[in-house]
Amino acid sequence: MKNIPESLQMIKQRIEAACRRVHRDPKEIEIVAVTKYVSVETTKAALDHGVVHLGESRVQDAIPKWAELGQRGTWHFIGHLQTNKVKDIIGRFAYVHSLDRLSLAAEIEKRGEINNTVTNCFVQVNISGEETKFGLEPKQVLEFVKETSKMKYINLCGLMTMAPYEQEAEETRTIFKQLRELRDELNALQLPRVQLTHLSMGMSNDFEVAIEEGATFIRLGSVLVGNERK
User: Fold this and answer.
1) Structural domain count, the chain
2) What's this model's pTM, rounded to 2 decimal places?
3) Minimal CB count within 10 Å: which of 10, 23, 151, 198?
């Protein structure tokens, strides 16, 4: 098992340094521990050492962990969400980071009404244009936000993107900058019921650049909890 207290201390130091460079308050940054590749024991250890936010991306793996640990922490679904799996997520996961189509929004709304539960959702945007990544094209986001903002059981809390993996983290900067600019453009329109506060962007290899460009939620797996896949 990875030494989580040591990793967490190092990550917080790196967050503070990145915030100093751009005059941000480190308290603005939330760490989502990506526990999708680790055991229940490692997930519990992360909670024991002060991690609050947990990120899972496969429903079949996430539900057993939630069943054991769900009364602790705040749970985020960060992977591509199939419509038929929404029923397993609503009421368990406070955040969905991958809202990317109206059929998914409609199902979240439907299940939210049944459970009387509002889910915080990030609109996933494919800024890089990679065919292997999910998410809306930037030009599609405005109309999508207009439609989904009408839904009572969805709280649009921000935008999310995944940058391409780069050996040099600096190469990802333009991706994060574009997401921040898109968020700011949408907020400037002052649409009814739309206040996109957060940016979910940045992972183990590029989170410092993401912070410098405005990230409020960073998704950290290998650098924080490790990777226990066989």
Assistant:
1) 1
2) 0.96
3) 23
